[in-house]
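In keeping with the milestone schedule agreed at the kick-off meeting, the structural modelling team has produced records for the first pair of proteins. Each record is given below as a sequence line and a structure-token line. The laboratory manager (R.T.) confirmed that both were archived under the project's standard naming scheme.
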Amino acid sequence: MAGNATLALRLGAMICGASLGLVYLSLLVWTARDISARSRDGLVRLAAVLLVLLLNVVGLAVYVLLRPTETLAERYERELIEEVLAREVTGRARPAARLQDQNEAYRAPAGSRTGHSAP
């Protein structure tokens, strides 16, 4: 009976150890994927993974506090939107002025464009 209890304890410890190992591995994989989405710098990527590798959950907490706030895709999208908005703001005055000139040309009497007087 004592042998069965020790076998059960060993089996339970192995299952708990394997579960913790999988959680630890998943933290490393998540960190690597997250920093890859946020930075192109290889040294920063390596430092983030090493931080979590060496300091476990504490390293993950430090990484989450220090990581860039937005992903590369989010930054690219934001920059595109800013560029489009900047073009709209700077480019609106000219097309609007051209449109106003065209509208005035349409409102002018027919004879005034050709130099003839209207009957």
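The second protein of the pair:
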Amino acid sequence: MAKKLPSSVLISGVKWRIDRPRKIKEEGAACFGKCVPEDFTISVQAGLRIGRAWDTLLHEIAHAAWHMCGADKALETLDTSSDAARDDFEEGKIADAFRLSYQGALRELGLFTLPGD
């Protein structure tokens, strides 16, 4: 039996609340999950099969990690006239987000361990 979703998770040292509303909308469209960085909340639709719920939670943790590493703010200041510069920037920030934030959240959830943990 798969483990049920937690009520919170630490991402880059910040506690994010995980809620389970019956319905979620993002930009007017129905979706399985949503990340709200302004109040450190991740929503995962209630009633999903446990595998889909975990997939959705991990997807939303990736969005939260993106925000926590500052990539969203830095991207706003990037000169987007150069596609190559934007692609290089995004790749580096995504790598940092996963290394620093996503990995820590997965460790806390018991889904990832490093030698010596």
